[in-house]
Amino acid sequence: MDPWLVFLIIFVFVVIVIVIASLRRKGQKKEPRRAVHTYLEHGDYVSAGRMHLQQKKEEEAASLYFQIPPDKKPLYESMILQQLGAQSAQLFWIKTGRRLERSSPEHAKIAYLLAGAHFDAVKMFIDRNNPTDAIEIVKHIQVSHQESTVRRLSQYAFNRGKYTIAADLLRAIGLVDEGDAILAVAAHEFGAIERPEIAATMYDSVGRQDLVGESQEHRGEQALSQGKIEEAKVAFEEAVKAYD
């Protein structure tokens, strides 16, 4: 047999092997997709989610969780714990929460709570100026860790100028005096930066009517110097009420 014919046969054989291997790889890639689709069609969310995790598609697994019926969620949560283990499952939910903070804070909150990451959940609501949800979560922190966690969160809020939230967090767990102290400090700061109207509100919330009066007087004088007669009138009236 001529050498060129032998070469041609070998070449054709190699090409056929490559084509077959390529087709098999494509088939293997399509097979999991078909399987996930089949599971979803039959309402088998747990198996679909498990397949996502086995394929390292954690975002898809997390996304599916928020699409399934409420009565199916506990089984799905158990599957994630079983599939990943306690530590990795916690990390899975924390990463999900951080990814969803901007697009869906409610889903992010659920993810954080599934991870037991109360600090991250409250911090998110502090950043969003949502004290109601922040305080609601604080009340569910384990008692043994509650005070230390809330103090850290209050400091976080205070450092970002969210003084009222910082105070409300402390008050929510019974640290009323410390909450009042934060507002008093904040009122002093606002007074120092020429924001007497805010200082007056904060002094009022801690029962310092004498300082409320002073702040309103300052506000009135400031308004007069700027030619804001009506605002000055209101401020002086509020000062009189505070002193009475």
User: Could you state the order of secondary-structure elements as H and E?
Assistant: HHHHHHHHHHHHHH
Strand content: under 5%
Structural class: mainly alpha
Sheet bearing the most strands, described? Answer: none
Shape: elongated
How many helices? The count is 14
Number of domains: 3
Question: Would you kindly provide a brief summary of this structure?
Answer:
The chain is an all-alpha fold and 244 residues long.
What does this structure look like?
Helix 7 runs parallel beside helix 9 and helix 9 (143-159) runs antiparallel to helix 10. Mean pLDDT is 78; it is low at 27-31 and 191-195. Helix content is 82%, strand content 0%. The N and C termini lie far apart (118 Å). The chain is elongated, with a radius of gyration of 31 Å. With 244 residues, it is mostly helical. The protein folds into three domains: 48-116, no CATH class; 118-174; 190-244, no CATH class. It is built from 14 helices and no strands. The longest helix is centred in the N-terminal third of the chain and has 39 residues, at 3-41.
Descriptive key words:
single chain; 244 residues; mainly alpha; 3 domains; 82% helix
Fold topology:
Blueprint: H1 3-41, H2 45-54, H3 58-65, H4 73-84, H5 86-100, H6 105-115, H7 118-127, H8 131-138, H9 143-159, H10 163-172, H11 176-192, H12 196-205, H13 209-225, H14 229-243
